[in-house]
User: Which sequence fits this backbone?
């Protein structure tokens, strides 16, 4: 009987996804003066937890439920005036222009010690600003890795896309354990072809991405060799870079240099609200082009990560995150590069659920993700699900990756055949 109810629930879920009516917005966000695209702009709906972000080219496709068409579309971007307009008054392909909103604070200076104190105040504010009670996040995850061998052809990589629901027990936990970490529930997953002999048994890419949320885990390193900017005391160098505006509030920008044994120049930029010290975004970047054979067999050539948050019901929630990094394997004895590995991870939170969380979590029990690669959890391919899945349409596609796979498969769908393949672990 339980199996029958689960199967019925599963097909009803897919049917609902297909049947739901949407208002489709295909839009580009540009700077009004320069016409330059604005990447990772926050897009949301008034009085709703639904949202998305723009792609690196400023584009987004937003499937808005029909019952929300009388609400307003909100667009915000760092350093710009926010845009707000009723959805029913917008054209489906209307370009949205944002105007710069510089904040002139020439008479105000913040010392390096003051910049550090801003971050310390942000740490103290986490229990008051971020949710400390359980909630659910519905979203879309993509991961991809590519390997180039110096003496042979390159491995094109495996592209994995997953519709997920994430249970979060709440921020500001005193101890990090399996009970205080997020739980991942896999709604659907699909992948391109996998490489024979490649180790897909490694930790779930989405899990490690969640673990690198420095606000959620303020004592966890963003990368193995980098100190978290919220882990005090530390020897990091804090510098105030001025103020800007986002979603009609003023935020301070703090630049943080991170000394490390790998000798890679790494820098955080943290955007802290002047009103309540909420961290609304943080970025991490680092790059080291010269090869240093003294640091070991593996060298990090570059890394970039972005975590963006949004306000909902007086609290601040994760909205979007993207991580990309490049590693090189070295032959230390002969001083040459053996292989180069590129990794990409992306997570877009499309919807937040704060009511009836425990009951809804129980209904997700059959979808609990294993703590290893999604490539080993591939389900049967459901074309209607992916064709109509809202988050897939809204996701800010990484152009380089998508164009690569489109060219490689010449318009064919690399997921359909791969989804049918059985993988033994």
Assistant:
């Amino acid at each position: 009987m339980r199996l029958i109810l689960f199967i019925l629930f599963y097909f009803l879920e897919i049917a609902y996804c297909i049947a739901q009516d949407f208002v489709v917005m295909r839009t580009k966000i540009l700077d009004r003066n320069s016409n330059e695209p604005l990447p990772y702009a926050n897009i949301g709906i008034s009085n709703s937890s639904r949202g998305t972000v723009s792609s690196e080219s400023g584009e987004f496709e937003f499937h808005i439920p029909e019952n929300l068409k009388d609400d307003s579309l909100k667009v915000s971007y760092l350093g710009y005036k926010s845009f707000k307009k009723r959805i029913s008054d917008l054209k489906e392909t209307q370009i949205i222009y944002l105007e710069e909103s510089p904040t002139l604070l020439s008479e105000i200076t913040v010392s390096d010690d003051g910049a550090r104190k801003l971050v310390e105040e942000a740490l103290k504010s986490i229990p008051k600003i971020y949710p400390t009670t359980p909630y659910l996040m519905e979203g879309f995850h993509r991961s991809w890795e590519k390997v180039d061998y110096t003496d042979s052809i390159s491995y094109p990589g495996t592209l994995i896309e997953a519709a997920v629901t994430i249970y979060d027990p709440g921020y500001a936990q005193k101890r990090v354990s399996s009970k205080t970490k997020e739980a991942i529930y896999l709604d659907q997953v699909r992948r391109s072809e996998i490489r024979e002999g490649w180790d897909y048994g490694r930790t779930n890419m989405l899990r490690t991405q969640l673990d690198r949320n420095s606000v959620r885990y303020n004592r966890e390193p963003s990368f193995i060799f980098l100190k978290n900017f919220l882990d005090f005391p530390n020897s990091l160098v804090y510098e105030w870079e001025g103020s800007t505006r986002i979603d009609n509030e003023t935020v301070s920008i703090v630049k943080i240099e991170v000394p490390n044994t790998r000798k890679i120049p790494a820098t955080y930029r943290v955007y802290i609200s002047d009103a309540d010290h909420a961290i609304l975004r943080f970025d991490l970047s680092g790059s080291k082009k010269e090869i240093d054979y003294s640091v070991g067999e593996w060298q990090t050539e570059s890394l970039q990560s972005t975590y963006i948050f949004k306000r909902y019901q007086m609290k601040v929630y994760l909205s979007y995150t993207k991580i990309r990094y490049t590693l090189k394997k070295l032959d230390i004895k002969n001083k040459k590069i053996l292989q180069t590995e590129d990794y990409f991870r992306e997570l877009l939170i499309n919807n937040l659920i704060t009511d009836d969380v425990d009951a809804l979590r129980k209904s997700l029990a059959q979808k609990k993700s294993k703590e290893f690669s999604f490539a080993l959890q591939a389900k049967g391919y459901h074309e209607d699900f992916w064709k109509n899945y809202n988050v897939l349409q809204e996701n800010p596609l990484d152009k380089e990756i998508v164009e690569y796979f489109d060219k490689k498969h010449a318009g064919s769908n690399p997921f359909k055949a791969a989804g049918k393949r059985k993988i033994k672990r």
Observations:
- The two ends are 30 Å apart (CA to CA).
